[in-house]
Design a protein that fits this description.
199 residues; mainly alpha; 77% helix; globular; transmembrane helix; transmembrane; YitT family protein
Length: 199
Amino acid sequence: MTRRLIQLFAGLVLYGLSIALIVRADLGLDPWDVLNQGVFERFAGPAGISFGLVVNLIGMAVLLLWIPLRQKPGIGTVANVLVIGTVANLGLDWIPSDLGLPLQAGLLIGGIVLNGVASGAYIGAGLGPGPRDGLMTGIVARTGWPVKWVRTSIELAVIAVGWLLGGSVGLGTVLYAVTIGPLVHVFLPMFTIRTMTTD
């Protein structure tokens, strides 16, 4: 359990940092952060609410959608809601903005790869899915619809809403969409903690 907790929190911290890198790259965000940024730009920012707090609040709102889906959160689910946005805020304070294109490209690529590593780490800890992952699996369990269609539909919906609210859609959004699956496919088996069984 100690290793699981360490890996969980390391993964969540790295995930928050990856968000900050992708935001500072300013070349287009991953689907959920398009929504996060749109809400921030339209409502939260003018009200003095930080981007990281928006990430956490939207995570909590998604968690409420688990109730009719009869999904049960784990330690990792709650930690996900509390840690990722907080670390993203710290990263945004630390990483400068208005960088040149070569540095922006480096931040984007580094952020996407780090996101894949972080996803493999926190999911592989096996202490509960994140709110967004649980939403997807809950819908699949309740409807029997294919995972790929549910995931794609959710992400297209959050991109559309986020973009309408002013979120950043661009090359980074496309690059994230086509690479995050293969990256998690590589890193998840590396970090998955399997329980020991005895005969």
